[in-house]
Amino acid sequence: MTTASVSSTERLDFKRILPIFVIVFVDLLALTIIIPLLPLYAASYGANPFTIGLLGATYPVMQFLAAPLLGRLSDRIGRKPVLIASLLGSVIGFVVMGLARSVEVLFLARFIDGISGANISTAQAAIADNTSEKTRTQGLGLIGAAFGIGFTIGPVLAFVTLALSGNNYSMVAFVAAVFAAFALLLTVVWFQESLPPERRGAGVRAPAFTLAAMFAALRRPTVGFLLALIFAQQMVFGGFEQLLSLFTLNRLGLDARGNSVLFVIIGLVVVVVQGGLIGQLSRRFGERWLIVTGLAALALGMVLLAITPAQAAPWYSREGVAIQLAGEQFGRTLPGETPPTRQLSLSLPDEANRGWLGITWGLLAMLIASVGGAVLSPAINSTITRQVASNETGGILGISASFVSAANALAPVVGGALFNWFGSTAPFLVAGIVTAVLWAMSNRMLPRTLQHGEPSTKPKLA
User: Fold this and answer.
1) Closest CA relative to residue 203, chosen from 378, 393, 411
2) What 3-state class would DSSP assign to 312?
3) What counts of helices (H) and strands (E) characterise the chain?
4) More confident residue, 49 or 386
5) pLDDT tens, 392-424?
6) N or C: which terminus of the chain has fewer CB atoms within 10 Å of its end residue's CB?
7) CA 256 to CA 109: how far, in whole Å?
8) pTM over 0.70, yes/no
9) Domain 9-194+209-450 belongs to what architecture?
10) Where do the structural domains in the chain lie, given as residue ranges?
């Protein structure tokens, strides 16, 4: 093998990956524009917090059910048709939301967009089609970077739209529909099919989605552990993102603006790690090292965050924060916040105890946790794809996406219950302990052959 050919297999072909990245990013902008608005939209039609919580769970639940179906379907008919159909569904979902005049129609909109939003597994499969085993982690990391950029920019676009439209909620939904339509256009015009006809459907006999198939995948050596691992780490990192604003309000006295800055910082960390550093680290140390190190960082970050000193930020005003909370009971626009966390009663810190220790400690813990979380998902998914045949990549990534969606639906519920019953320290301390156990298990159970990306046996999915 020539030096040039070796180099081509060790470097990511950005020309082939760029269309996928841009399509996913634009599609995510549509989603993240809606996130700060949805609870307000439902409350404007008289929905109570419990109903708002059910509405918030609709999207990830439908993703959980639909991701394996779309992933397996893309294995059979190709990636492009599935992406086109799902993005068209997103456009329809946002238009329905813009036209909604009742909570029931909002549920319908989130139902439609949840099914369509499961296309992330297809995008991941397209990344796998266009990468080698040595560049796959970096390629999948770019999907994570698109998430990071989207969750940083999306809420800002929502704020601008509301300001220009006089707080017209429908207009925000229509702007999201425009972004989804743009992603659809890019897919039709720019995206090139990555799965050739001769590779479609070969060896795939399983139904598109059954719970039995998911449990069967869990029983398989290495693959099953990796799927359980991606579910558990998403429960931890997803809960961290969902509950962070409540924690910093209770412990540090940060209001909506302060928490928005924190989420921008977290988003930037995810972009830097998944968009660039992870590729270099994967080639140098391998996926096994990334997984083990990522778990260690996430566990450390969670424990440090849990024991953040209860000291308000220097600029904290108890009266000012109390006025904000009383005046905007369901109007917080913090990226990542979800309805199940909104009904908790929180005590505010003492204004007499202000300083830099609390915010400095908390920010350091968040940065460590963010690096760990940013590393894990692409490293685990890359490792999973090397355990199955190439014509089953979409299916196994669909199952992986379903576990992530299930974790996203459960994380704020479980974390919120711990927060409510045992205090703000509990969810992060429990998360840190659970992640430390996962780190110990990964050290024992992950094969050493994964260290530097050597090919592994690829048994077929049942």
Assistant:
1) 393
2) strand
3) 18, 0
4) 386
5) 666 777 778 778 877 878 777 777 778 777 888
6) N
7) 27
8) no
9) Up-down Bundle (1.20)
10) 9-194+209-450
